[in-house]
Amino acid sequence: MAMAWGQCELFPVANEAEIQRTKFLLGKYKSMRLLMDDYENNTQDMQMIAIDGEVARRIDSDELHADKAANAVILIEKQRWVYEKYQLYTGIIIRAVGLIQDEDSLGAIKHRYIKGHSFKETVLFYRCGMSDSTIRRKISEGTNSIANTLKLIGFFEQDNAEF
Question: Is the pLDDT of residue 158 over 60?
Fold first, then answer.
């Protein structure tokens, strides 16, 4: 049971939807990092392709007449916006992962999601020290810890307001 301070909980507990959102974000963490690294390393090339290439000819298939220059600007801004969102999400995930107190849960989460290994690879990595069910439980405990941290810092309220 969470402690309450007035109308707010001092230690809020994430609900099932928030835990599922956390699992989704953790599952996408490695992809977000790869896309961010690609954006950082190839921003100039991506902008040139948007300007010179056919990608910007028509952003929407319903357009009858395309303004390639304007569409290129929109495409470049969309890429920058996605990059900034991914920066926010990955930064918050790393902060929340860093607050996991159980070392086994922390290790399992880092191996499974931060490094991007499959569950099977994670089980094989920890095979000598933990059983399959223990690894599954540690990942679940770590995910719950991250979801609770995200709820505590108000991530879910902000995330829902944007969409």
Answer: yes
DSSP-based three-state secondary structure for 114: helix
- pTM score, two decimals? 0.77
The helix or strand, by DSSP H or E, that contains position 43, with its residue range, turns out to be: helix 16-52
Contact between 13 and 148 (Cβ < 8 Å): yes
Residues 6+ apart with CB under 8 A from 49: 55
Tokens 């950082």 locate to 40
Reading the block at residue 124, the tokens are: 């094989």
- Comparing C-alpha atoms, which of 148, 137, 140, 100 is closest to residue 2? 148
pLDDT 10s digits, 11-34 = 789 999 999 999 999 999 999 999
- How many Cβ atoms from other residues are within 10 Å of residue 1's Cβ? 6
Distance in angstroms (rounded) separating the CA atoms of residues 163 and 160: 5
